[in-house]
């Protein structure tokens, strides 16, 4: 077992994983396919806020937040009470059979809080991938066009069309083809890896020229229904574009009558210090996809868009049996209350603390090649050499694993799997945050600060 003397919140009674978790891991191996990945090899007994206790009684600080699904934390009492109350009323009459008010209430709220003062409409599904697939269906129906443009390093889900729009081959696409037709990849600004010392503006203009060239090489703009973009790339490595790029991309879409879809599944609901990341750029999307933190862990997703666009499909052409579950709707209504009660601004405070610590590591360790983030969506990139910027997947993986062993759940990301990302719940207090960052800093010191580790 690791020595964690002086820790206030992390409590390790056993090694990670402990004996009970190891026992369950054996059962998992026997009965569950190997495909579903796991970051920390423990089984959860209970969780609250930013703390998770496993079946062996070990308490960990959660810097992963169920891959960004828990902006309001584990088991927020307001959400728990709302869900319990809903369970006593009805569980799921199915909106397509008999309707219920929470569905309408949540649609009203999302129409209110999403960017833009225009008339909007919203409907609900179960997952981010479903939201993406349905946003594309609606865009094609409204425009009468077939092609969809997404971006290199982008992630939009694991279902067929969403996987086709996703960029990283392994582990998301390898061996799962053929993929959906009429999907095309665009370059996305990655300033840290810009060739030849290009400035940010030069990178933006080069990328925009490449997009114009794709209209000549691959697909004419009059055949393109929509562009779908993550305002900050999530699985792609927390790559943050400039406001100039996003605005110019939107202008390009408007020029050609192409709809602009913002995939806010990971960036939405306060994560970046705004309710939605697109607010940082002053751009109003035509359609927004949402999921993850909308329901505090209750599965629900949403598609919100301009009213005339959303009304393009006819009756029965969009929907799903469990879409807009009453449990998800009442949970989401409470989530919005919590976020508007101060958690959105809290994301900025958290982000400043995280980036300050990451910048310290960056100055100390050449292997920390880049530090970046927006609000509480923060990451650092691990490289073999600061000059070549050769990605270091192996040491990044060791950082993730060792943090888990010491009681902090973090996750990797990036096309090269060399990025460490933080998605801690926004309800985390300063002491918990600093204790978790202490562990990350200690692990980085051992993994990249030791010359023998290079």
TrEMBL record:
SUPFAM superfamilies tied to this protein: PLP-dependent transferases
Listed GO biological process terms: gamma-aminobutyric acid metabolic process
Top-level taxonomic group: Bacteria
Transmembrane segments: none
EC numbers: 2.6.1.19, 2.6.1.22
Recorded catalytic activity of this chain's protein: 4-aminobutanoate + 2-oxoglutarate = succinate semialdehyde + L-glutamate; (S)-3-amino-2-methylpropanoate + 2-oxoglutarate = 2-methyl-3-oxopropanoate + L-glutamate
Name of the protein: (S)-3-amino-2-methylpropionate transaminase
Family to which this protein belongs: Belongs to the class-III pyridoxal-phosphate-dependent aminotransferase family.
InterPro entries the UniProt entry points to: 4NH2But_aminotransferase_bac, Aminotrans_3, Aminotrans_3_PPA_site, Class-III_PLP-dep_AT, PyrdxlP-dep_Trfase, PyrdxlP-dep_Trfase_major, PyrdxlP-dep_Trfase_small
Pathway info: Amino-acid degradation; 4-aminobutanoate degradation
Species annotation: Planifilum fimeticola
GO molecular function: (S)-3-amino-2-methylpropionate transaminase activity; 4-aminobutyrate:2-oxoglutarate transaminase activity; identical protein binding; pyridoxal phosphate binding
NCBIfam families in the cross-refs: GABAtrnsam (TIGR00700)
Keyword Transferase belongs to the record: yes
Keywords: Aminotransferase, Pyridoxal phosphate, Transferase
Cofactor: pyridoxal 5'-phosphate
């Amino acid at each position: 077992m690791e020595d964690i003397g002086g820790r206030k919140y992390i409590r390790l009674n056993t090694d990670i994983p402990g004996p009970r978790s190891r026992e369950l891991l054996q059962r998992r191996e026997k009965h569950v396919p190997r495909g579903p990945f796991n970051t920390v090899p423990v089984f959860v007994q209970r969780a609250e806020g930013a703390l998770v206790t496993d079946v062996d009684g070990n308490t960990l600080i959660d810097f992963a937040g169920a891959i960004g699904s828990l902006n309001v934390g584990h088991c927020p009492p307001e959400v728990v009470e709302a869900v319990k109350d809903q369970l006593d009323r009805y569980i799921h009459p199915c909106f397509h059979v008999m309707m219920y008010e929470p569905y309408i209430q949540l649609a009203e709220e999302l129409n209110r809080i999403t960017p833009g003062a225009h008339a909007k409409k919203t409907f609900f599904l179960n997952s981010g991938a479903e939201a993406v697939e349905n946003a594309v269906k609606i865009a094609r129906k409204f425009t009468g066009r077939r092609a969809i443009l997404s971006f290199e390093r982008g992630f939009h889900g694991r279902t067929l069309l969403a996987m086709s729009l996703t960029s990283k081959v392994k582990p998301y696409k390898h061996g799962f083809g053929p993929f959906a037709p009429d999907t095309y990849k665009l370059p996305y600004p990655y300033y840290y890896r810009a060739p030849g010392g290009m400035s940010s503006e030069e990178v933006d203009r080069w990328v925009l020229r490449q997009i114009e060239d794709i209209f000549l090489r691959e697909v004419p703009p009059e055949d393109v229904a929509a562009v779908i973009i993550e305002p900050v790339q999530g699985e792609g490595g927390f790559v943050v574009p400039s406001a100039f790029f996003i605005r110019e991309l939107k202008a390009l879409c408007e020029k050609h009558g192409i709809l602009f879809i913002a995939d806010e599944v990971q960036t939405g609901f306060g994560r970046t210090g705004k309710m939605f990341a697109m607010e940082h750029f002053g751009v109003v999307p035509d359609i927004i996809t949402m999921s993850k933190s909308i329901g505090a862990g209750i599965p629900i997703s949403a598609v919100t868009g301009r009213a005339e666009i959303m009304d393009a499909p006819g009756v029965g052409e969009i929907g799903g049996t469990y879409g807009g579950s009453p449990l998800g709707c009442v949970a989401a209504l409470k989530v919005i209350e919590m976020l508007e009660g101060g958690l959105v601004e809290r994301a900025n405070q958290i982000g400043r603390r995280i980036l300050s610590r990451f910048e310290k590591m960056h100055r100390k360790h050449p292997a920390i090649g880049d530090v970046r983030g927006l609000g509480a969506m923060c990451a650092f990139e691990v490289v073999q050499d600061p000059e070549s910027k050769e990605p270091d997947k192996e040491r990044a993986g060791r950082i993730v694993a060792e943090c888990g062993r010491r009681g902090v759940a973090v996750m990797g990301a990036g096309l090269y799997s060399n990025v460490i990302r933080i998605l801690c719940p926004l309800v985390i207090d300063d002491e918990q945050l600093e204790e978790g960052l202490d562990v990350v800093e200690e692990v980085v010191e051992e993994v990249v600060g030791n010359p023998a580790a290079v």
